[in-house]
Amino acid sequence: MRYILPDYTNCCVNLMNSVARHFGLTATHPTLDIVDKELQKDYKNVVVLLLDGFGQNLLMGRLPFDCFLRQNFVQELSAVYPSSTVPATTSFKTGLTPMEHGWWSHFLFFKMLGQTINLYTNNDSINRKRVPLDDVAHRVMPYTNILDLATESNPNNFKAYTLCPAEARDNFGVFQVTYNTFDEMSEYITTLTSLGGKRLIYAYHNFPDDAMHKTGVRINETDKLLIDLNYQVENLCKSCPDTLFLITADHGQTDLHESRDIAGFPDLLDCLTMLPNGCTRCANCFVKRGREREFEKLANKYLSDKFLILSRKEVFAKNLLGTGKPHPELDNTLGDYLICAIADCNIVSSSLYGLPTAQPYGIHGGLTLDEMRVPLIIYGDKSN
């Protein structure tokens, strides 16, 4: 089993700090040299295009060598951890690590309510019902979008936009445009970049992640969709003169072949104060006081063949959730242990996640190479 830890000197946090510094903000983390050099060419527009789930394995293993995306690939980046959309997109929007912004996983326990909540839907993770308090995550862990800060720093003839699918639920911050298809998103970007003045655009597209969650990663249908995506991105980039495109992903995906239900280990479950939260490939465990050694022994007994069991102390020592100043709420949301997937297996609770237990499908959130490695693709033509 091969796995890698996140690199917070070479990830989306550093990419967005390059963008932030270019637009007059103070970089809070190291920037990426290759992006800094390209930004020095002073393009009229900068577009950060995030393709959800488009891992390095898809680019290099599933697309032809001479395709547009491979020809403009410049370097590999690390995903943040967990390798999931919530922590990653929040890092894109803030330029902060998951440890700093606090949105470090999909389901988190909020001490103030005594409930585990889906950060995007604001629903209780057990009964699926909306909690009485609106927008809990934003109330407890508010953040400022880099695009908002860039707008404040560049008041003259500059505008920033976020583009996301119409079903997107995280509508906080900078002016947001919603769309239904990639072609519609492309039309918006083409129009916005043709207007007078400078533009900074963050565009999120939920493909190929959505498709692979349903069909898996390693199937012919995915290859066909990726080839179509390559042509769509190429047409978009070549339709926008004097525009720098920074194209990357939040994480990759791998195929799942096994799930282990926490209910199948009653002695392990008895060590916990509540069901694990976080996500199915990064289980966040709160352990009853005085039973930490027992939990660790049992977790290694049942799970260490396909999971890395890390204590809270080890999580910080390995910078698993990032560097920088921990968000104050992290002390409440981070449990005593993380159970981190390093193979093709999930840890689930049927009552908590309601997921299939033995069906192969695409998944992410773990530390495997396919989940943790994403490409950085750069395209810009100053001659147009």
Task: Set out the fold topology.
Layout: H1 12-22, H2 33-39, E1 45-51, H3 56-62, H4 68-71, E2 73-78, H5 85-94, H6 98-101, E3 107-110, E4 115-118, H7 136-140, H8 146-153, E5 158-165, E6 176-179, H9 182-194, E7 198-205, H10 209-215, H11 220-237, E8 243-248, E9 254-256, E10 258-261, H12 266-269, E11 277-279, E12 282-285, H13 292-303, E13 307-311, H14 312-317, H15 330-333, E14 337-341, E15 345-348, H16 350-353, E16 361-363, H17 369-372, E17 373-379
Parallel strand pairs: 1-7, 1-8, 5-6, 5-7, 10-15
Antiparallel strand pairs: 2-17, 3-4, 8-17, 9-16, 11-12, 12-14, 13-14
Helix pairs in contact: 1-2, 1-5
Q: Quick summary of this structure?
A:
The protein is 33% helix and 22% strand. The N and C termini lie far apart (47 Å). The mean pLDDT is 92.
How would you describe this structure to a colleague?
- With 384 residues, the chain is α/β, with parallel strands linked by helices.
- It has two domains: 12-103 and 141-254 and 368-379, Alkaline Phosphatase, subunit A (3-Layer(aba) Sandwich), CATH 3.40.720.10; 255-363, Gyrase A, domain 2, CATH 3.30.1360.180.
- Helices cover 33% and strands 22% of the residues.
- The protein contains 17 helices and 17 strands.
- The protein has a seven-stranded mixed beta sheet, sandwiched between helices. Strands 11-12-14-13 form a four-stranded antiparallel beta sheet. The chain has a two-stranded antiparallel sheet with strand order 3-4.
- Strand 11 and strand 12 (282-285) form a beta hairpin.
- Helix 1 (12-22) packs parallel to helix 2 (33-39) and helix 1 runs parallel beside helix 5 (85-94).
- It is globular, with a radius of gyration of 21 Å.
- The mean pLDDT is 92.
